[in-house]
Amino acid sequence: DETIVLSDLAKRMGIKANEMIKKLMMLGVMVTVNQTIDFDTAALVASEFDYEVEKARFEEDAVLNIDSEDDAGKQVGRSPVVTIMGHVDHGKTSLLDVIRKTRITEIEAGGITQHIGAYSVATNRGQITFLDTPGHEAFTSMRARGATVTDIVVLVVAADDGVMPQTVEAINHSRAAGVPIIVAINKMDKAGADPDRVMRELADHGLMSEEWGGDTIFVKVSAKQNQGIDELLEMILLQAEVLELTANPERHARGYVVESKLDSGRGPVATVLIQEGTLHAGDPIVCGIHHGKIRAMLNDRGAQVDEAGPSMPVEILGLSGVPNAGDEMVALDDDKSAKQVSEHRLQKHRSLELAKTSRVSLEKLFERM
Ligand code: GDP
Ligand code: MG
């Protein structure tokens, strides 16, 4: 369903929008400058001006070069990307905090951790990237856009509370996305802790522990007392080994926005999790409806970096606007293509927005009648 905003069509044809509106009126079509018209109407009015509208579809994918790069023989291992999910108050934030504190500040004494929506943890057996957006929204909104950025879900269940509605939701989301689950039974320090009950309840939802002959990894932890964290990290890496996660670091970078904001001093800022390829300072990029050139990249410790490879989260500066979480970012060869793709998307976006508002105003009109 190709549509175009009337003013955009007029501009492309070098015709005043008013002239086009008049012509359309004579043809019995009532539109305003900001309304969209469909292909047939566009073709009709264009022929009135001795133009021919071609249904030449903008080949965005060709410009983006997405599937044309050869990955053969270039795939190498990459770190796992982990999302922590679970029922409210079961300890997601506490767990993320304790992992971050013990693993990052230990290594970089005095280092201040930046909140960028994702962070990378170094263990002596490898790196793990955690998405610092506990809860289901980030996970589901990205999935709705066809992006599965998470390799492993850590399902937090409080030992004194057991399986709750959001626990079940998290299991369903993970299953739907085909992402393996590691269970962290948290709050083991509490007097009312009953891990067996948690295991029983989860078995009822198809998550059977290895202890009981199933294949789900369970780890008993206490975020409060910093217990079982090493084992949890080890189990994540073990699960990652089984998944044999790979990516080609040699192609144009592709990734997803996990967080974004407008910074008064730095302009649009986005945290991007790189999935494929390597992003370099100076790379032209397209991100959602925006484009730009990587002016600077910062890692989760606020340090400037020149490049970011697969599974690495980086904060990027240099975009023309603030993208949405879940938007895809693609690096391109030249600024011109980046601008072209972003303009095309912007136009499409505007058409959709305008279609929405004109529908609303029509409804209002009918209300009044
Ligand atoms: P979230 O809603 O899942 O992010 O849960 P929070 O991390 O905010 O934790 C909810 C409450 O449980 C807070 O009061 C935490 O201090 C507490 N809590 C988290 N982990 C533990 C734990 O291991 N032991 C105990 N006793 N309390 C915990
Ligand atoms: Mg929380």
From TrEMBL:
GTP binds at residues 86-93, 132-136, 186-189. Residues 77-246 form the Tr-type G domain. The keyword Cytoplasm applies. It is found in: Cytoplasm. GO terms for cellular component: cytosol. The keyword Cytoplasm applies. Keywords: Cytoplasm, GTP-binding, Initiation factor, Nucleotide-binding, Protein biosynthesis. One of its GO terms (molecular function) is GTPase activity. Residues 80-228 are annotated as: G-domain. Its main location: cytoplasm. Belongs to the TRAFAC class translation factor GTPase superfamily. Classic translation factor GTPase family. IF-2 subfamily. One of the essential components for the initiation of protein synthesis. Protects formylmethionyl-tRNA from spontaneous hydrolysis and promotes its binding to the 30S ribosomal subunits. Also involved in the hydrolysis of GTP during the formation of the 70S ribosomal complex. This is Translation initiation factor IF-2. It comes from Desulfococcus multivorans DSM 2059. The chain holds residues 370 to 738 of 947 of the full protein.
